[in-house]
User: Which sequence fits this backbone?
């Protein structure tokens, strides 16, 4: 089985990174995902985090992209498709990947706190489940990781700024 990264894969990861960046501008954790036909590179579905905007705990980029792809294809089976996502999928999304029978998964940064592909669990390679897919970690890893650390750094800076603001207000009262 070919586990190599193609030009199409790289283009799709770039697309996922673009979706993640756009989400960050809306105050979402920057995670983006694209589902495409492995052979043709036709994009079937894409998504970014919508958790904050829609207050949806299931609003993960992968779930949105997978749902859109199944609808576009008219089939819940995505065997001939690949998923490119900027962060290692969580248990919920890895579960959806198994249920969708996705053929390949490429991701950027590892997620030591929630990753269910190799960091905490290995749901996509677990032989007790009825589906396994080709997994390629670390695609554009540096760019994906930098995007996340940059986002959280900014969030912390804003928080400490707000705290200082509050403190000075309290002092003035
Ligand atoms: Zn997830």
Assistant:
């Amino acid at each position: 089985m070919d586990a190599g990264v193609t030009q199409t894969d790289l283009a799709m990861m770039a697309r996922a990174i673009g979706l993640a960046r756009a989400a960050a501008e809306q105050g979402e954790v920057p995670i983006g995902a694209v589902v495409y036909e492995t052979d043709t590179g036709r994009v079937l579905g894409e998504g970014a985090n919508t958790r904050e905007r829609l207050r949806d705990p299931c609003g993960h980029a992968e779930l949105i992209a997978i749902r859109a792809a199944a609808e576009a294809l008219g089939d819940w089976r995505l065997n001939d498709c690949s998923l490119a996502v900027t962060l290692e999928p969580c248990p919920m999304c890895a579960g959806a990947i198994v249920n969708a029978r996705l053929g390949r998964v490429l991701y950027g940064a590892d997620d030591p706190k929630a990753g269910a592909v190799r960091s905490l669990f290995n749901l996509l390679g677990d032989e007790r489940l009825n589906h396994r897919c080709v997994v390629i970690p670390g695609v554009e890893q540096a760019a994906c990781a930098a995007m996340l650390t940059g986002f959280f750094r900014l969030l912390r800076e804003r928080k400490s700024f707000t705290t200082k603001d509050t403190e000075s207000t309290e002092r003035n009262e």
